[in-house]
Amino acid sequence: MSQSQDNAQAYWRANKRLLAKLLVVWFVVSYGFGILLFEPLNAIHIGGYPLGYFFAQQGAIYVFVFLIFFYAFRMNALDRKFGVAEKD
């Protein structure tokens, strides 16, 4: 394999690793906290609302939006690292 093919494969591998980690976080927050751990989390209150309700209704959305920005930030760093960054 040539150097550019090795670089492209390493870039794609790093991208898939990052995506897998972020999907696990998204799954844990939305399914785990919002559904599976709903009852235990309701013992904790934030702003007068049970934490389980918060995650099920709003928290998972906030985390998802954060993950979008985090992914964009990390992909920009990966682009620069592997020399495929967009020109300004």
TrEMBL record:
Transmembrane segments annotated in the record for this chain: 18-38, 50-73
Protease recorded as keyword: no
Domain Sodium symporter small subunit residues, every copy: 8-84
Any matching Pfam family: DUF4212
Keyword Membrane: yes
Keywords: Membrane, Transmembrane, Transmembrane helix
Record-given protein name: Membrane protein
InterPro entries tied to this protein: Na_symporter_ssu
Highest taxon in the source lineage: Bacteria
